[in-house]
Amino acid sequence: MKPKKVVPKGKPYSQKSKENETIRLNKYLSNAGICSRREADENIKMGLVQVNGKVVTEMGYQVAAADEVKYDGARIQKNAPVYLLLNKPKGFVATAQGGVIKKSVQELIRTAAKGKIPPLGDMGRPMTGLLFLTNDDALRKKLGQSSSIPMIYQVILDKTVTAEMMKQLKKGQLVFGKEAKINAISHLEGKSKNEVGIEVHSLSPAALVKLFEGVGLKVIQMDRVTYGGMTKKDLPRGNWRKLSTKEVGFLKMLP
Q1: Domains of the chain: which residue ranges?
Q2: pLDDT tens digits for 48-67?
């Protein structure tokens, strides 16, 4: 009889700790969605990339998972950026504050990408409509400071919206320490006089609720129908889609 083959014990090579694994710097940049590998080589040569605070110009440089990599002064995320548009249904909560929340919008986008994709701004359970979510910290910071994101809402109030109320809403008032106003407002054709369509820039549902309260109106229902030029076309309630390169580019160009 042939002797049994002895298999050495121990972890196979493929199961080594991920903390010790390294990849080429150009691939790291490519995986993060910064640029192609060829473009990454050029950017590295120009001294635009830092690893752990030091400029790296060496081709083939290896980086580990724990390393901090910066491109043009901005920290690079380890995962490629994800940009999502969700048509939020009633009853779900959108918040960037974190924590355990019952019926979070994260439940609706769990198949979109690995890890949490935070929303830009909050939307309470009664609010519905378009919600932008991304893990691109640079864009989140830019849009969070922007006052130029075009939005359209359809709002149902507790009573008739008069011409005088509309005038006051367009004049604006101080909300959460900032000046807020509605750019355009009108009654909806074929609807009752307590329903209006409004055009605003970078105003959250919470800020709009305060604006309407300021003129004696209570919000019954609010739906965001456009966000940054994007609409709900072919996006049923509760569904999400990824943004196109053109849509992401538009958001990045907003002042």
Answers
A1: 20-75, 83-146+232-253, 150-227
A2: 999 999 999 999 999 998 89
